[in-house]
Amino acid sequence: GGIHVNQALLSPLPPAPRYSMLVISSYIPAGLTSRVHLHSGVEAFYVVDGQQCLETPARAYPMKKGDVLVLPTGVTMQMIATGSTPRRAFAVVVYDATKPPTTPVENEVPLVACS
Q1: Which DSSP string corresponds to 5-68?
Q2: Which residues does 15 contact at the CB level (< 8 Å), separation at least 6?
Q3: Which letter does DSSP use for residue 115 in this model?
Q4: 107: which DSSP letter?
Q5: pLDDT tier at 51, thresholds 50, 70, 90
Q6: How far apart are alpha carbons 62 and 79 in whole angstroms?
Q7: Angle at Cα 63 formed by Cα 30 and Cα 49, nearest 5°?
Q8: What is the C-alpha separation between 95 and 75, in angstroms, rounded?
């Protein structure tokens, strides 16, 4: 009964004996950030409302309503809810089921800041 709004082509999956999928629906007030982390699999984002910026060691990815982003396995990242309204988004992580889907990064590598 839903409406198709977008699609994402995933990056190659990491070699694994089996996979799991983590589906995340999140509501984050403007100005809040995630912790610095990485995933043991591929992650795809879809921004439902608001804005976000994803910082990685290579670059910053500003995103608005309707945008899709796919990141390969093992990219260190931090999400920031930008703009003046809350950010709502869906994310899907397809990962090696023998590993945790998300790992906090204690000794952060420098990230390219969202401006």
Answers
A1: ----PPPPPPP-SSEEEEEEEEEE-TT-BPPSEEESEEEEEEEEESEEEEE-SS-EEEEETT-E
A2: 96
A3: -
A4: S
A5: very high
A6: 10
A7: 55
A8: 13
Cα distance between residue 15 and residue 87, in whole Å: 33
What's the Rg (C-alpha) of the chain? 14
User: Tell me: the pLDDT tens digits for 15-31?
Assistant: 999 999 999 999 999 99
Rounded to whole angstroms, the Cα distance separating 19 from 11 reads: 14
Distance of CA 5 to the CA centre of its chain: 18
| Residues 73/41, Cβ–Cβ less than 8 Å | yes
- Give strand pairing partners of 103: 38
In whole angstroms, what is the distance from residue 20 CA to residue 100 CA?
10
Q: What is the mean pLDDT of residues 104-113?
A: 85
